[in-house]
Amino acid sequence: MNKDQVEGKLQDIGGKLQEEAGKLVGNQEQQVKGLKNQVEGKTQEKYGDAKDALRDATN
Fold it and tell me: Where in this protein does the record put region Disordered (predicted)?
């Protein structure tokens, strides 16, 4: 795993927690922020996957 994969996964997990916390307290803004963080985290994780695939292909 590279740095982007790890950071992306952590942001995704944090976003899920933030979304659920927003649901618990009825705060729609926190839910939306959590979803945004999940998307950003998954995007960063996929970027890390692509970097790994490229590195593997060139070795």
Answer: 21-59
